[in-house]
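Protein Record: Sequence and Backbone Structure Tokens
======================================================

Structure line: whole-number tokens from a learned vocabulary of local backbone shapes, matched to residues.

Purpose: to set a sequence beside its fold so the mapping can be learned.

___
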Amino acid sequence: MKPILAEVITIGDEILFGQITDTNTQWLGAELTKIGIRTVRKSSVGDQKEAILTILDEATKRVDLVILTGGLGPTKDDITKVTICEFFNTTLERNPEALAFVTKFFESRGRQITEINARQADLPLNCTYIPNDWGTAPGMWFNENGTIYISLPGVPFEMKNLMQHRLIPMLQKHFETPAIVHKMILTVGIGESFLAETIAAWEDALPSHIKLAYLPSFSQVRLRLTGTGTDPILLKKELDEQVAAVLPLIQPFVFGYDDDQLETKIAELLSAKTWMLATAESCTGGFVASQITKYAGSSAYFVGGVVSYSNTVKVNQLGVKPETLSQFGAVSEETVREMAEGVRKNLGANVGIATSGVAGPDGGTPEKPVGTIWIACSTEKQTVARLLKFGPHREQNIQLTSVHVLNLLRQTLLDEQEE
């Protein structure tokens, strides 16, 4: 079956100027995948006629479906409709159905329609009018020379409603699409290159209709398997079989699948043991605790935390020995161990985790340069510490440290679960 390819184009200077974040293309890509349409290109252009005409001409040569969002307002800076008319060599005409819809929209809100408002009903002659239930800018559907063009308002909630309730059913009726199924394997604590080496033989043996992509982020790598075919149920079964085949190679690094989050998987492990967690943070300044508590219900497994930025707090609140600090320093294995043990005992938790390091950009020494981080995890049975070495970027160091200490917690919980 021939794949159906799509391109999504966002229109608006505000996107290019960085004044708003484009979330439309991400959402559209996900929704199109669900119905078997593969998005092969996403791009943004400003409110310039020539730029829009050029990208439309290029897209026509590449794909079966072109979706535009933005530039459909009634003011002079919104030029999408007039530019589309030039592209299709047609003209605008006031659409009676669209005018009645816009008029009713304003009357229902106790307002009189103005000429500027009425311009929302001016549509290219060659388009199919798509009513916008949540706004005045209509959707437009064009079928020209075998290519489908859809123009949508840029306001996300209007665009989503139009797609979900009107245009996706139209696309499913128009195109005979293959099934596209994704399966995500979520890993932590192993770099992309090491992961690739570990699973190289398995990857090479994947059938041609199943593709693998590596999606790295802060100390995590998502492995995305994408299967293409005619039967989504069979594809899902095949992807599950491939996951089962690769799992023995990478099991220690896998924390979940698809939309799982590291923090929620830790929550499941803590809840299964009915354990409470406490945190002691120096260099991360409470970031670890915020990651734990951003999910509802965290009070069931998180007792609290101490941001022990100063040595005084480390001593008075966590029970770190003064001689430990004087002999080894705040950024040391000895100190972070005592922090993790102290927060566990003092807050009455079953497990405590701790961070201490030089986040940067200042404060480093030749012995302990910026990016030197110690983390620890303490239970009644054991205290485990790890040395991390990162770069000079403060925000990145904080986020990386958070992921690593949470993964150390995950590994510790799993180890004690198996005993």
About this structure: The chain has three domains: 4-174, 179-257, 262-418.
